[in-house]
Amino acid sequence: MLGHLxxxxxxxxxxxxxxxxxxxxxxxxxxxxxxxSENKILLLFERVGQVCxxxxxxxxxxxxxxxxxxxxxxxxxxxxxxxxxxxxxxxYFTDEHTEENFYRSFxxxxxxxxxxxxxxxxxxxIYGKVIWMIASAVIIGxxxxxxxxxxxxxxx
Length: 156
Description:
Blueprint: H1 9-26, H2 40-59, H3 72-94, H4 99-103, H5 112-128, H6 131-155
Helix pairs in contact: 1-2, 1-3, 2-6, 3-5, 5-6
């Protein structure tokens, strides 16, 4: 449950899927982006969660692909959520770059650019049976999803 130390190539793939669109976004922020001040407590949760998720994703070999079993469905579900996350980024980049477009739901999933990767990392933690990733996903979820919901409420 604590995890086995080593390098996780699956964790690296997830982090690349997470960071690359965010780097592109930093050059293509919404045209009406206000950058409103964020709740300091939520921001603290987000930052701590980011560091813990990043470290956990890379240092636990439990996330690497093992022989297929029913337990592998956790990894498949997690990866599907990351694919949907990428689809949401494609939707944003190919549509008008507005805050409303950035925060809009995806087939009923609220703030998908925040909630999908958090859920994916939570399921990755379950797949690897790594309590540190599960806790990290909960921590980042509180901050990151909370901040996105605040931004969404501010533009409505």
